[in-house]
């Protein structure tokens, strides 16, 4: 994760989000540099065709998840075995599945659970992992020791095996349980990223200046130190969104994730894998949507890293 945490400081070691003055600049200098860095990053991202294409794809998938009625008027539960495995046509671009349901509507409605799980799990690890990493890095000592040892316990669990075991023990596979399992296994990584950023920032001049004028621990952490960790945290959160979309599909494919009659890309892949040689489109359509979504999140994360880290410019 060293390439992510490298984004936490600007050119010459100047803080990204620090508000305190340094000996060589006026009190507003830090804010001006911060605004300049984010403005430069925004301009670079807008001019990056790879980022814009990936961002447009994610917008399309997000609109499928939020407003599926905009993309199809077909009811995914309107099925008839007379139409089983009919090939794609102009009226039904993805054809019909084995139960005779419109496959295109299944693909549209299948975007929602994957995106909801990814967004909820990512939000949880950013909130919980961010706070714990901030506390560990700022206070050090026994606070850091306890939080770090807890992180080590979760790091010792293989991600996929741990998720399978937890979901098998819980015996309730739904959006909430899958989100909880992904959160439990993923929060230590972002906590370690934040911890490293805080340790490298808490002794900088602008933090010492704020402490000298009487700023308390809460203000130092949330107004002066935490903004330095926003860039690497944003990069990692973007990439992990794609990872969680893939994780949900993987767990569903292995039989411990979402279960029918729920609609998801993982269920579509799992139910139709045996028909690949006869009707490959039953597998290619959901796989294409899944791969495109995961790849777009990864490309966006890479572009964000390059834009927010001056060393990549």
Q: Give the terminus-to-terminus CA distance.
A: 19 Å
Oligomeric assembly: single chain
Order of helices and strands: HHHHHHHHHHHH
**Overall geometry:** elongated
SSE-based structural type: mainly alpha
Characterize the main sheet: none
SS elements, strand count: 0
Arithmetic mean pLDDT = 84
Count of alpha and pi helical runs: 12
How big is the Rg? 23 Å
Helix content: 55-70%
Word description of this protein:
The chain has 12 helices and no strands. Helix 5 packs parallel to helix 8 (175-201), helix 10 packs parallel to helix 11 (265-272) and helix 11 packs antiparallel against helix 12 (281-308). Helices cover 67% and strands 0% of the residues. The chain starts with a helix and ends in a 5-residue tail after the last helix. It is mostly helical and 313 residues long. It has helices at 2-5, 29-46, 49-66, 103-109, 111-139, 141-155, 159-170, 175-201, 205-212, 217-253, 265-272, 281-308.
Can you tag this structure with a few keywords?
mainly alpha; 0% strand; disordered N terminus; 12 helices; 313 residues
């Amino acid at each position: 994760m060293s390439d992510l945490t490298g984004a936490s400081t600007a050119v010459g070691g100047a803080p990204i989000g620090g508000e305190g003055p340094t000996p060589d600049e006026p009190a507003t200098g830090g804010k001006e540099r911060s605004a300049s860095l984010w403005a430069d990053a925004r301009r670079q991202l807008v001019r990056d065709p790879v980022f814009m294409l990936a961002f447009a794809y994610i917008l399309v998938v997000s609109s499928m998840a939020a407003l599926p009625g905009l993309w199809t008027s077909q009811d995914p539960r309107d099925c008839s075995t007379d139409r089983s495995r009919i090939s794609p046509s102009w009226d039904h671009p993805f054809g019909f599945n084995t139960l005779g349901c419109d496959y295109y509507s299944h693909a549209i409605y299948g975007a929602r659970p994957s995106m909801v799980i990814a967004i909820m799990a990512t939000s949880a690890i950013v909130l919980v992992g961010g706070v714990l990493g901030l506390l560990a890095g700022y206070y050090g000592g026994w606070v850091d020791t306890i939080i770090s040892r807890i992180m080590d316990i979760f790091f010792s669990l293989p991600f996929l095996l741990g998720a399978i075991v937890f979901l098998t023990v819980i015996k309730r596979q739904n959006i909430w349980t899958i989100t909880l399992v992904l959160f439990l296994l993923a929060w230590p990584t972002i906590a370690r990223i934040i911890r490293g950023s805080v340790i490298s920032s808490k002794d900088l001049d602008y933090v010492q200046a704020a402490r000298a004028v009487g700023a308390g621990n809460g203000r130092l952490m949330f107004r002066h130190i935490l903004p330095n960790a926003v860039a690497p945290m944003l990069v990692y959160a973007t990439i992990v969104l794609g990872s969680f979309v893939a994780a949900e599909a993987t767990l569903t494919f292995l039989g411990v994730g979402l279960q029918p009659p729920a609609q998801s890309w993982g269920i579509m892949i799992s139910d139709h894998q045996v028909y690949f040689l006869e009707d490959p489109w039953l597998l290619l359509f959901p796989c294409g949507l899944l791969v495109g979504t995961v790849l777009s999140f990864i490309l966006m994360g890479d572009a964000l890293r390059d834009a927010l880290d001056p060393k990549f410019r």
